[in-house]
Amino acid sequence: MQLPGPGVFGPPKDRDGALAVLRTAVDAGVNHIDTAQFYGPDVANELIREALSPYPDDLVLVSKVGAARDGQGQWLPAQRPEELRAGVEANLASLDVEQLPVVNLRIHHESDVPFGEQLSLMIALRDEGLIGGVGLSNVDIDQYREARSRTEVACVQNPYSVADRSGQDLFDACRSDGVPFVPFFPLGSAFNAENPVLGSPAVQETARRLGATAAQVALAWLLHQAPTVLLIPGTSSLDHLEENLGAVGVALDAAADGALA
Predict the structure, then answer these.
(1) Domain 6-159 coded CATH 3.90.1720.10
(2) The pLDDT value given to residue 190
(3) pTM of the model as a whole
(4) DSSP of the chain, one letter per residue?
């Protein structure tokens, strides 16, 4: 999400740098990349294709549908069945793949398209072989349970962080069900002037005590919550990529658990 230009709109300021981030991440062992056709729009997928195609056998590209952009970069819902299908087809074409391992259905709660109708289309796309699994994004607990009653859920991508636990019930349900949980904005939203994650006194103090950065502590805390947590900390720089990858080496002790509880 951070590879296109400011506001996830337009080309990156440093195209070569964006390509280097992708290649370095995969060389370091990253095998799960989160993307969307509407990141840019069209920009993120094109960068992924140029940097990584032909793709490593173990690389899992996960995209999402349910949104669009206008000419000014505004985010728009695109949740009618024909829009969802067009979104999947656009992702396949831009990434140059015959099937996407997982596509997340991103929900806009103000949309007048029933959730069940959207889910039916995603199941049909899976049955047709265009996608390997149906994921969910920005859903509530009732939508998650409805989806689970109808199909296997490949993953859930919702906001969750040390500073935002408003979706704790959904996180707990996924953990209990063994469904991978992909917290978006794990380091806080780049769209907000203040960052409640990296600016958290508890996170900062824990980072100082453990000799880590605030970002590493915040990511380590998420990994500590469940073995099924998959992290997608967006970055556009090699320095931040290296910092984020270093989170796997941060061991949180009892004092950290208490401070961040």
Answers:
(1) no
(2) 67
(3) 0.95
(4) --SSSGGGBSS-S-HHHHHHHHHHHHHTT--EEE--TTTBTTHHHHHHHHHHPSPPTT-EEEEEESEEE-TT--EEE--SHHHHHHHHHHHHHHHT-S-BSEEEEE--TT--S-HHHHHHHHHHHHHHTSBS-EEEES--HHHHHHHHHHS-EEEEEEE-BTTB-TTHHHHHHHHHHT--EEEESTT--TTSSS-TTTT-HHHHHHHHHHT--HHHHHHHHHHHH-TTB------SSHHHHHHHHGGGG----HHHHHHH-
